[in-house]
Amino acid sequence: MEKKLTCIVCPLGCQLTVQLNGREVVKVEGNTCPRGAEYAKNECTNPQRTVTSTIRCENGGLVSVKTDRPIPKEKMTECMQLINKAVVKRPVAIGDVILSDVFGSNIVATQNKP
Amino acid sequence: MRDLVIIGGGPAGMSAAIAAYEQGVRDILILERDESLGGILQQCIHNGFGLHKFGEELTGPEYAWKYEQKVRELNIETKCNTMVLDITEDKVITATNAQEGIFQLQAKAIILAMGCRERSKGALNIAGSRPAGIFSAGTAQKFVNMKGYLPGKNVVILGSGDIGLIMARRMTLEGAKVHAVCELMPYSGGLARNIEQCLNDFNIPLKLSHTVVQIHGKERLEGVTIAQVDENRRPIDATREFIPCDTLLLSVGLIPENELSKAAKVDLSPITNGAVVDQDRQTSIPGVFACGNVLHVHDLVDFVSEEAEIAGKAAAAYIKGNTGKKVEIPVKTDGKVRYTVPQVITVKKDITLYFRVGSVYKNVRVNVTAGDKVILSRKRPKVAPGEMESVTIKAELLENVESLTVSLEVL
Known about the structure:
The complex is a heterodimer. By secondary structure, chain A is α+β, with helices and mostly antiparallel strands. Chain A is 19% helix and 41% strand. Chain B folds into three domains: 1-118 and 254-324, FAD/NAD(P)-binding domain (3-Layer(bba) Sandwich); 120-252, 3-Layer(bba) Sandwich (FAD/NAD(P)-binding domain), CATH 3.50.50.60; 326-411, Immunoglobulin-like (Sandwich), CATH 2.60.40. Chain B has helices spanning 11-22, 51-54, 60-73, 121-124, 137-147, 162-173, 192-199, 259-263, 301-319; strands spanning 2-7, 28-31, 47-49, 58-59, 77-79, 83-87, 92-97, 101-112, 116-118, 127-128, 134-136, 154-158, 177-183, 206-208, 210-216, 223-228, 241-244, 247-250, 254-256, 288-290, 329-333, 337-341, 344-345, 351-357, 361-370, 373-383, 389-393, 404-410. In chain B, the strands form seven sheets. In chain B, strands 1, 2, 5, 6, 7, 8 and 20 form a seven-stranded mixed beta sheet that branches. Chain B starts with a strand and ends with a strand.
């Protein structure tokens, strides 16, 4: 089976063609770098995404956050529910872990909030 | 008298300041109208920044912080909450803030790094009422990411620029339903990766060759009528479709913010809406440089930072008296190529020409010609208006060249 994908690893957005034998990736074409091949393999077996959002600060304002590594794509909605329930207290610095062990990642701050 | 004043403390301004410092300029002042440095990156909380520049994937605030840290480390003076009101041809800057009132500065060199703003044109031509619920995508982004408000729950997006695509995902993740992204053109203005990860991931339909023809609702938006357009971009009546929604986001392009450049009488390009510059990003006024989205709209902040380094270095050279326009080689385009930056070459050295095309073309050659001689030719599998292209011309190719034309040959 052949599958067409758009690589999302970088802004080039390579058009990838993946040859599949069942769920096994046999061949990847159209990528300009090794990361593209890896993306294609993951995308066909275990698609993953980085989630970015904001968390409310109990002493006012918001802090932007991200999963420090990609999480399974189908867990994005659940991840957002956890993020939306969370509250943090300023000061917060870039890299501070706000929630740990969220689908294999940590939710970390991406902004300094004094 | 200040050596270097930089207007704008976003990615372009900060990168230019650092580059000038590294070339030995110490008297640098960054003027920023917002309360902190970082510019629009502060509200771009999504990831995807910095891959080119740092080899890692950063969010907007993280990318900005890398530069802000450096600016602080180098003790480069910044004034935030400071609005520049005017710049003259003689490089006198009038600015205002709450502490100093209105004040004037004379600069030896100025770098324009004011960025761009969102085009609102998409809204002007739509029939119907003007209820609440119509936002530019960037305004919605500010509401969601910085103020913590969701501007609506049922959304239609007009225009497929990257900010619109990013907001389609963002509002979906926050619980809104995005019903469609309508794009007037037969191709998207956004990056392919954003169509994939912001629309396809959430099954949001991208309706190419579609536009919003009517706005419904009195107090609050109640819906929009969309229609397909023909090859002349005229709506086809038979395809009219009503979509109930409470929010319409416009993502129909960005315009460099050049009011100050106009006041200083800098020559502007009618195509980029930014200054006409040479390879050093020097404008028509010696000692006034421009970089980043105020010069021309970039796809990636990484490229903004790079361009700002060029301007920063050149401003440093100008301040030290190392100027010297040696030649004047205009760079023209054929129409398929809409514009180039720089638009003129004044020193014969290795030059990278950045350019955008006017439409989507597949299998093309980018030709750079001098007179009737092709001096450089590069194949591209696909070019699109949404993706900036570049070619680098070696200095030796510029020998005996009086003017250059960048053109596209469809194979």
